[in-house]
Every structure is written in structure tokens, then in C-alpha cells.
Amino acid sequence: MKTLAEMISDPPNKGFVCITPETKVTRRDLLSKASKLRESGEAISDPIVSGADILSAIPRMIALDGFASALYLAPADLSEEQRARLRDLARGVTSLQPGAKTQWVIATSGTSGAPKLVAHNLQSLTHSLKIDRGVGTELRWALLYDPCRFAGLQVTLQAAVSGSTLLVPESADVEYCIEFLRCNACTSISATPSMWRKVLSTSSVKELRLSHVTLGGEIADDRILQLLHATFPQARITHIYASTEAGVGFSVRDGRAGFPAEYLKTGPSGKVKLRISTNGILQIHDESFEQEYVGQSQRLIDRDGFIDTGDLVKLHGDRVFFLGRANGSINVGGQKVMPEEVESLIRSCPGVEEARVYSKPSPILGSIVMAEVVAGKNNRSDEVREQLKAMCHMRLEPFKRPVVIHMVDEIKVSAAGKIRRAGQ
Amino acid sequence: MVGSMTIRQTILHTLKDVAASSQIILVDPLTDETVLLQSGLDSLGFAILVARLEEQLGFDPFTMTDEPVYPRTLGEFITFYELMYQRL
């Protein structure tokens, strides 16, 4: 197995370059910065990679992989408690023993539940990347996420090991990001469905000429897939199923929500196998799984070699559909509501641009369902709310209906691009 | 007070509104002696009522006391809201 430095140093990868609004840094600069970090001893003494600055993060990843026993990825929004934990763990880092692999320790996004640390290695992070050097050098990938979160790391590594250009807008302002990407001839964007809905509402989106559109991290429903196809008819639209724990599991390219039920029998590709547990959770198996939780007795991989993804799924005809996170349901007086189901219905209502469904404590039922909705441009909020009320009444069982629908200007997403599930 | 409405008026108005939107028929007549569980509204209806009242009045009295409070009649329910409103 090659190290990251060796992969990037491959002559065909000379095209790897990182462009930010301020500067352009070539592969040679990044490799040379990495060498200095190794030579000065700084790599081992500080094996924490900070996601706040991409131009420091990449050389540090290159310096540490294949050189140190572990590297720790610290996204910019990591809590102080988690950061202190990383600092403690980092004190134990030594030079890599012969034959060993550098552990890449990543925090889960903690969208539902407390974040956990998962140890991967370069192989488990890159084995599913499509490395096509002929095409790779022509691609210009947008990095819309922190490079130290799983989704951002995937994009960063994809560009690095395929000799692509990495475009880093370094801004949370989606309108600005898309304008930056347009000016830099971006060809490829990977984003969560929530982030895509924001991208689709920007004024320069139609001027983007994308060949690769990738979705991941949240449920991709038919509506977002259709909208993306209509906006980027020339692009290959791929829905990736991935998680920090499992790495990249599989991808779906047929433009429909969910995945073919056939995958449960034949596996989606290569060595990956899928099954649904008795309680309806998708489980995934890959012969090359080596990842594990850090500092936790909980096993990541069960005795049969499967990882429990925590995603509830439902087999319906020839398709398996995602229902939402198993631990993210709202318990309304003992009846469970999947916020994703309600959000999906709300988004299908004309005049709705985005929706967030969340739980609110109730003295009577434990929790109740609440919703925040952004009306589309040229739509009146009060009219959209009335339409939604009527629609929810007709299509949802009473306990699933949002008790209050707040019309808001914007729904914020986390640094991982996902809708936050915790209540207000 | 919400606009020109008293707490009592707001509760009665919201109660009828929740019943109408949930297609529930309330007992007639609705008085202070009406037992909540026999008013026609089920527990989901009450949870909705409390949440909507919080939107309109700006407080949820059930979260303002350490002691669990279970008003039995409509009159007790209204009094509880009026009492907690004074503590704001």
C-alpha cells in the first residue's frame, strides 16, 4: 500500500493543485511543505490536522501518513471537549513501526447522538475512490466541507490521488461559493441533499457546467434527484452511500431514490455485502474493513464482519428506501415519527424550498413534531403554510403532523452539510 | 393578554381551533367544570393545544414549575395559565 505522499508524487498526479480565493498552491509546494514538517519533527510532535486551513491541512496529512502511528483530524467546529480528547490521544503518537499503517482518526458528525472517533487508514479511505487519471486531471472538484470531516476528506483525497484541481471557496456563504466555483470552471461537486437545495437556489447555479454531481450524507429523495437532473442534464449524478464508520459503501446512479433490492442478494459491487437486520437497520460488510472506534469498548464491526449503519430502511417492491436515522425518530406518546419522512412530504409541496422537522419536548406526550419551512422565491409564506397544513392533514397520520409550522428565511446546516436534528 | 384577548379567551379560542383542525367535536356546553379528558380532545390534541398556546402566549406553564401539574378540569387549566402568567 502506497503512502499518501507516494500516491500524490506519482507523475500522472502532477495536476493536483489547490485553489482558494487568495492563492493557488501546486502539488510540488504541498509536498515540499510536508517534507519540512517531517524533517523538523513537527509532524510527530503535533499530529493534529486542523480543518480550519486547507493549505496547512493537506501538507500535514501528507507528512503524517506512512510516517506517524496516527493522525487526528480536527474539524474547525469540533467542540473544546473533543479537541482536548484529541490532544490527549496525540501525546501517544510515535514514529510508524515497519509494516504498520497510520491510523486516520475521524470524528463522526454527531447529527444524532454524541460524536464518536473512528480510526481508518489510507486504504479504507481510498479503496472505493474512482481513480481514473485520464479524466482525473481534467476534473475540478469543489470542496464545500471541512477537509477534516468524512465528506470533505473524501473530496480532498479524491482530488489528491487523481491529479485533479481542488477548488476551496473557504466561505459559508453559498451564493459566494457558487460564484467562486463558476469563475474557476468547477466540473464536480459533492454535497449533501440539504447543501444541494441551497446550491440550487443560488443565482449563478445555472451557469455551472458540471460533469459530476454527487450526493451523500443524507437521504436523497426523488425530488432532489430530478431537480439536479433538470439543472445539470449533462452530468453524471451519483448518490453515494457512506458514513464515517463504514467509509464509502456503494453508489447508485439510476436517478431514483433508495437502491435496487437486488443489492441485498448480489451486493452493490465488488466485495461489499448488504443485509437488513431484524429491526430494519441496514448493515454493511466489506472484506477490507479495518476501522474501529477509538477509546470505546463498543465494537464497530460485529462477529459476522458487518457494520450497523444506524439507518432504517424499508424494502418496497424492487427497491430499498431509506427512512432515516434509527436513533433520530421523534417519540410522540410512544409512536415513532421519522423526521425525514415528514420533511420529504413537506418538500414535495409546491412553493417549498427547504424544510426541517424536529422534536420539541411536550409535557403531555414526551415530544411533539415541529417544522421550519423556507418558502420558495415568489411564494407567499402564509399561503405556503396553509397549503402545507392541508397537505399534512390529508397525507399524514395525526401524530406525525407538525404541530406548528414556522416559516423562516433560512435553514442552517451543520459543518457536515446536514440538517441539525436536535430541537431548538 | 394577547392583543385584546385575555388568557382565558386565548385558551378557549385556541382550543376550538385545535379541535376544528383535528376534526374533533368538543362537548357542548364547554364550561369550567368540563373534565379535560371528557372534553373531546385526546392527549395529542392537548399536546397540540399547549404547543400552540406557547406560540401565542410566549410561555409554557408546564415547564415553569418543578412540581408536576395535571389540571383536571378546563377551569383548572385556565387558572394554571393565569397563575403562571403572573409569575412571568
Proportion of residues in extended strands of chain A: 25-35%
State the distance separating the first and last CA atoms of chain A. 46 Å
Strand/helix succession of chain B = HHH
Q: DSSP helix count of chain B?
A: 3
Biggest beta sheet summary of chain A: 8 strands, mixed
Low-confidence stretches of chain A are none
Q: Which chain pair has the greatest contact?
A: A-B, 16 and 14 residues
**Quick check: average pLDDT of chain A?**
90
- Report, as a whole number of angstroms, the end-to-end distance of chain B: 12 Å
- Overall body shape of chain B: globular
Per DSSP, what share of the residues of chain B sits in E-state strands of 2 or more residues? under 5%
Q: What is the CA-based Rg of chain B, rounded?
A: 12 Å
Computed over alpha carbons, the radius of gyration of chain A is 22 Å
Give the overall silhouette of chain A. Answer: globular
- Number of H- or I-type helical stretches of chain A: 14
| Major β-sheet strand ordering of chain A | 2-1-8-7-9-10-11-12
Briefly, what is this?
Chain A is of the alpha/beta class. Chain A is 29% helix and 27% strand.
How would you describe what is shown here?
The complex is a heterodimer of chains A (424) and B (88). Helices cover 29% and strands 27% of the residues of chain A. Chain A contains 14 helices and 23 strands. Chain A has helices at residues 4-9, 27-39, 42-45, 54-64, 80-90, 122-126, 133-136, 150-162, 174-183, 193-200, 222-231, 263-266, 339-347, 381-395; strands at residues 17-19, 24-26, 48-50, 70-74, 103-107, 117-120, 140-142, 165-167, 188-191, 212-215, 236-243, 247-252, 259-260, 273-276, 281-285, 292-293, 306-316, 319-325, 330-332, 335-337, 352-362, 366-375, 404-407. In chain A, helix 10 (193-200) packs across helix 11. The model of chain A has no long low-confidence stretch (mean pLDDT 90). With 88 residues, chain B is an all-alpha fold. Chain B has three helices and no strands. The two termini of chain B are 12 Å apart.
